[in-house]
Amino acid sequence: MSDANDPLAVTLFSEIFMVDQLARARLTKALPKGMEISHFSVLNHLAHVQEERSPAQLARTFNVTRGAMTNTLGKLEIAGHVHIRPDWDDARRKFVAISPAGLQARDVAIAAITPVIGEVVDAIGIEKARAALPVLRELRLRMAGEKD
Question: How far apart are CA 100 and CA 81, in angstroms?
Fold first, then answer.
């Protein structure tokens, strides 16, 4: 990267970091009492994939440590939002599935955050939001090392 582009890169990522911080703050306020963004993220992911995942797979998906994922899954299990079972072939491994209560909690959370995020998209305009998606997706893939 040439020196001429450094201010652009710094400004771009500064904006991304600030958007992340502001979005997390607004969504945290909108989520149902007791639900954290990490809880919602895991429930939403499990609802989308519609199959069991190991804690290690979830940790990789969310780019967190196994310990952090174990903590999140423990809280979700106590709340009745996930079922954690042993792997029948290898007792050292576990599998996680979303429970009916977890699906309901995720749906309640979606209903709570949709007006917040919808308001922002409406304010900037659907076309601008749609135009931003390919750039954000490519940034994500490059940061994850999935795109050369």
Answer: 7
